[in-house]
Write a structure and sequence with these properties.
With 244 residues, the chain is of the alpha/beta class. 28% of the residues lie in helices and 23% in strands. The chain is built from 7 helices and 13 strands. Strands 4-1-5-6-13-12-11-8-9 form a 9-stranded mixed sheet, with helices on both faces. A two-stranded antiparallel sheet has the order 2-3. The protein has a two-stranded antiparallel ribbon with strand order 7-10. Helix 3 links the parallel strand 5 and strand 6. The longest helix has 19 residues. It is globular, with a radius of gyration of 17 Å. The chain starts with 5 loop residues before the first strand and ends with a helix.
């Protein structure tokens, strides 16, 4: 008998030629995300940009929503002009993920948003983004996605926050590879984690079950229980949601 909550994961679009012998492109999600969910006891189902029906109807089959990393959110979504450093903008993916996240928020479905996912979450609730961190003086190295460059830095979590309670610590060592970040917070979002330079690294909804992190917990979760704890708690919440 199949068990475990069912988690929806919107996918990357893979451009033609990105995968050998896939000349027309495709869809995918890096395996570490799925591995983390499986360790926590969940089942993952991948959604594509073509899944453009009513978000609430799509989510009726699921018990949790995971938003993963990827390209930049279209600046038109938050009323900004695009910078030249933008990469991987997929308006269809933006539309799908924002629609799913808002639907999950309305129903109280647990949602975990990672890296791009955290940026999508901020924009979904009316926030804005810093489009290119290297152009801002005083920020430390946060990695460069297009060059697959990874940085490691600490993240300080707000004492008493949901994420600090989930991870069991107020300071995490985090894997980071992003060139954008949260600027103005979206409505109803609370910053609960920061890198040493003051950049927002964790967000929570002031109601509901959203936790969003700017770093990549899936990179180190296999060897760092505090990072795996994010997935464990997310899946536990999805299990409880399934039982309602």
């Amino acid at each position: 008998m199949v068990s475990g909550p069912l988690i929806a994961i919107p996918t990357y679009h893979l451009a033609p030629g990105r995968v050998a012998r896939w000349p027309q492109g495709g869809y995918g999600v890096p395996s570490p995300y799925v591995d983390c969910l499986r360790r926590a006891g969940a089942r993952a189902v991948l959604l594509t940009e073509a899944d453009d029906g009513d978000p609430a109807e799509l989510l009726m089959l699921f018990h949790g929503l995971l938003l993963v990393g990827g390209g930049d959110v279209d600046p038109a979504r938050y009323g900004a002009e695009p910078r030249s450093e933008l990469y991987g903008v997929e308006p269809d993916r933006d539309r799908l993920e924002i629609g799913l996240l808002l639907a999950a928020d309305r129903t109280g479905m647990p949602a975990l948003a990672i890296c791009r996912g955290a940026q999508v979450a901020n924009v979904a609730f009316g926030g804005t983004l810093l489009q290119h961190l290297p152009a801002i003086d005083g920020l430390l190295e946060h990695g460069a996605p297009v060059e697959d460059a990874v940085a490691t830095h600490d993240v300080r979590l707000a004492p008493g926050s949901r994420i600090a309670e989930l991870c069991g610590t107020d300071v995490l060592s985090c894997s980071s590879h992003h060139h954008q970040g949260v600027d103005r917070l979206g409505d109803g979002l609370v910053a609960t984690g920061w890198s040493p330079d003051g950049l927002v690294e964790a967000l929570e909804r002031n109601h509901g079950s959203l936790v969003a992190v700017q770093w990549h917990p899936e990179d180190t979760a296999a060897s760092d229980p505090a990072q795996q704890a994010l997935f464990d708690a997310f899946v536990a919440g999805a299990q409880a949601y399934a039982a309602v």
